[in-house]
Amino acid sequence: MENFSEWYSEILEKAEIYDVRYPIKGCGVYLPYGFKIRRYTFDILRRLLEEKGHEEVLFPLLIPEDLLAKEGEHIKGFENEVFWVTHGGKKPLEIKLALRPTSETPIYYMMKLWIKVHKDLPIKIFQIVNTFRYETKHTRPLIRLREIMTFKEAHTAHTTMEEAENQVKEAIEIYREFFNELGIPVIVSRRPEWDKFPGAEYTVAFDTVFPDGRVIQIGTVHNLGQNFSRTFDLEFETLEGGKDYVYQTCYGISDRAIASIIAIHGDEKGLILPPNVAPIQVIIIPLLFKGKKEIVYDKTRKLYSLLKEAGVRVKIDDRDIRPGRKFNDWELRGVPVRIEVGPKDIENKVVTIYRRDTGEKYHVGEDKIMDEILDLLEKIKDNMRKKAKEKIERYITIVDYNADIPIEEIACRVKETLKEKKGIVLIPYSEKVYREDFEEKIEASILGITEYRGEKYITVGRTY
Amino acid sequence: MENFSEWYSEILEKAEIYDVRYPIKGCGVYLPYGFKIRRYTFDILRRLLEEKGHEEVLFPLLIPEDLLAKEGEHIKGFENEVFWVTHGGKKPLEIKLALRPTSETPIYYMMKLWIKVHKDLPIKIFQIVNTFRYETKHTRPLIRLREIMTFKEAHTAHTTMEEAENQVKEAIEIYREFFNELGIPVIVSRRPEWDKFPGAEYTVAFDTVFPDGRVIQIGTVHNLGQNFSRTFDLEFETLEGGKDYVYQTCYGISDRAIASIIAIHGDEKGLILPPNVAPIQVIIIPLLFKGKKEIVYDKTRKLYSLLKEAGVRVKIDDRDIRPGRKFNDWELRGVPVRIEVGPKDIENKVVTIYRRDTGEKYHVGEDKIMDEILDLLEKIKDNMRKKAKEKIERYITIVDYNADIPIEEIACRVKETLKEKKGIVLIPYSEKVYREDFEEKIEASILGITEYRGEKYITVGRTY
Questions:
Q1: CA of A29 to nearest chain B CA: how many angstroms apart?
Q2: Start and end of every Aminoacyl-transfer RNA synthetases class-II family profile domain (chains A, B) (predicted)?
Q3: Is the domain of B63 the same as that of B91?
Q4: Residue A438: which domain range?
């Protein structure tokens, strides 16, 4: 697509995903179709978290000022971005209340009440909530919002640093699997010190590349060590009868997961949805000809019942408009499979199948339709993942250098490469490159350190 | 139970439903067990709404001051209860933003953009969100909150008043079915003029009675007529080519649904949960004796797999504590069915079943266990509904009077009856009684007008 930004805005509107016309900057409305994509997407994440023993909870939105300010680094990272509630009715409040920018402070305040001895640990909880950032940068729907409508944040507490380390690994595996399910390719980098989460020991982040070649962070995992537990006095009695502070991790995924599904898989015709998050997986379109309407409707209904019973999300489009318009509508909305039912196919005991991801159209014997569809939905999912991976590979470039080359020249090469190829540039790791001032030289961000095909690289790119 | 209020607080804590110790008045935390009850409960409501063509959406939390103030009656009803955001970061905002107390104004602002002609109607949408009221009254967990954590609000728009009337009827039927599913008995009253929703034509409300004899509103349905549509200029082109404003309804259910499940069904031992919202429907407790552990564990696991596969939410309690303590724990948490597995029962090819709702304990042949459990879960649901209905019937008293009796004497009788019997008093309808000043005379609220066994009554009671 030529102009990604334009395409993206248009598709949000036309596919009825998210309405940006709300009268507050950075706030919008999830429309029914978009809401369903969101629901199926976060249901996958919920399942993955629950399978690994996480339990869902729900914390208040409001955080008293003194509680949010308790951890020094943390508040520094957020103080310019917090929305403050100062009045209740017509009266000023005694203490200002923040709209949560994230929930470390309220959750760890409560953990203090729940943790006494080692047997109370580990705690592994998550919530899916709205969070708020007073963004001064340019906002973008589902990418940079003032009301992040969907923030899945998980928080854990453990008896040892080793356990916390393992939890970080588990979180990374869960997120890998989540993005794998969505067919979204990721590069996982350990963020540099100067770009870690405020209050964390270190941060591991998931990035992907959008069709305009810009890098976007779509998930983060933080090892908090004992930074917060000391502040919030999360002390527990150890197995040996001593005292220690708990070791903590937290990890989050936002509406950007939805933005990525749209951006990564879409094409000129519109959305292409992975079948597991598609609100409609199969659209059936009856092709009506005079005198043959009844047999077509009859066949349509039979197919519908058959697929419905097999658990497929199926819909019949029986609107009184031309089939061509129907085709366009559902292609725009990214429905993975279309079935056309016409009198001639009925005679020949076949149905016509159209695949949104490849554009292929073919016939299948009507007795084989059910197996074909179930099989096809899997195939589409796999093919979409493969295609997306190929696309991102074209956006990954290695810039090599000899050890004795001056840093300015490395920077120059990286900058040129970024200009030409966009996406992510991988630079073999060295201390002299891995410095904050290198970012200025290349006019891009250091994403961090990653392993790529067994080698250690510095990842850089221009980010959202 | 002797002291309902105490019992209620204790059960929220002990059954780990909702933690009130959050440092803001009227705000608390849904704990994992409570969150699951909430999820299953609102999943029922979601299903019922979707079956009737409602679509789920998600609107922003924040409402600009001028938008909230647009409908005069509406803002008057809420202005003393609104939390205001006045600052972003360290800067004052140009316009104050309200935390939604309810979402008529933001939703109807957007409807203006969606509605052009009759073909755009009806619109039937809902969302499940947090809403805020700066309550100055005494707050109570899940009953009167400053952050209402769960508010299901539905909003509809129609081409005629008749359609809106029918929508009100549909909403009432949906809510009836919802509370029926939860086994919560309700009295449905049309609220008096002076107590209708701010901006509505009329309000129909669902009330139930808590064990302390106080009445609580647990659902409302409003016919808004054209009040909001005129304010928000929701004009559409009619089928005949003319212009009209849409006719609207809205209806809501909150966390009070969860409070009601707890309050209505619980007993001295703790919660009793309807099987359809119980996080654990069947708890299996192995009774271990030396030398017989393996066969008991083996049987336990087999039962678990069998029930799990049949879709039952089942759990094994294999903690290393006395069975008696386990029994208490799960009775407290309201698990509908307990299965005990001991060596003697295994020899006799039976299992022991305990029903939480009746306290009955009995044996079942192990080959019949699956049918028995599925059947039992249905039976429990029905029995709980029946019992709850009987309980509320004891809280409904008719106070009759002759037409020529002075109003003061009627008031006196009603007041006495309320004092003695509590709950809801039904007074045969008459204009002289159905006046706002009657409330002072009886020191209770007029709930409205209801039909009870074919007759028209005024309903009164002391409310939460």
A1: 5
A2: 32-274
A3: yes
A4: 396-461
